[in-house]
Amino acid sequence: MYYKYPISDVHIHAFNRAFADETLDMVRELGYAKFVMLSGASIFPEFMGNNILCAAIKLKSSGRGYAFAALHYPEEGISGPEEMLAQAARYHELGFDGIKMMDGKPNMRLRIGVPLNDPAYDPLFSFMESVDLPLLYHVNDPVEFWTWDLMPQWAKKMGKEVFYGDGRYPSKQQIEDEALGILDKHPRLRVIFPHFFFTAVNRERTRRIFDAYPNVSYDLTPGWEMFESFAQDYEGWRQFFIDYSHRILFGTDTISDHWRETVSCLRRVLETAEEFTAFEEHCRGLALDGDVLKNIYQHNFDRYLPNPPRTMSLAGLRAYGQSLYPRAAALRRCSPEKAAANITEALAALEL
After folding, report:
1. For the segment 235-255, what is each residue's pLDDT rounded down to a tens digit?
2. Residue 106 and residue 119: Cα distance in Å, rounded?
């Protein structure tokens, strides 16, 4: 793809060895300057080796890749404060560049059973402040997911596990308030909220969040519903992007079977004035100028991430991987065999 400016992607996932190889091929084809691999080990216990796999991709990326580790939790609830702190300290020692958390995703918030700003998290977040370790924190999902009739067809096909309006889940507003409550206690914590924090339905609310919390940034990883919101309040959102271009990062959530279409549509939204449909949603390009695009595509990434990426300990990663097997064996709701196989596959990917 042709780029007028260097592009860096702050939001990529890969959950098996094949996806890892495809990710590196994708990054080469797209010509990314830099990219971040985000672990999903916390939300999917059977992908217990995902921290290691993300590290392996980083190590094979010729200096362009970064890796954010995820915490390991019990199958229900969260770990104790000391264990969460110890995990984060170990990831920092191993050379991970940040932490990826999924605790604010409504189905995981239901599973852990405590508010996002619970005191149990305080030692973890205080440590991250002290070493300036950034956090990419998935909080909420589209507001439509609390009302079945408003959900897009692709979400309905996933079934009731992504419908949050049955009375079991906290409200979208409660989860959002809990996440902001973290920042009230930890104002130096540098947080990227992906998917535009699912606040694109309310531009003034988004502006207030940015003004109140100067260490918060958003990434543009779709849900496409946010781009429909931008189109419905076009001039207001276009000016928002101009005013806050230093707080918005490019992200895609790839790899997927439609990554070329995803990246193409994202670029059309940012670079052109075209109107088009992307994944059931109506989009209108914001036609942003060069300085704004440079911030979103590259400069903000460089402000958040170390340059070059932090050096990783290969021996330490191997030892950490071996330490996961007893945790995998203790699984009861998820498959211990699948978790152990995932660890083994990830450790094999480390061997350059």
Report:
1. 999 999 999 999 999 999 877
2. 19
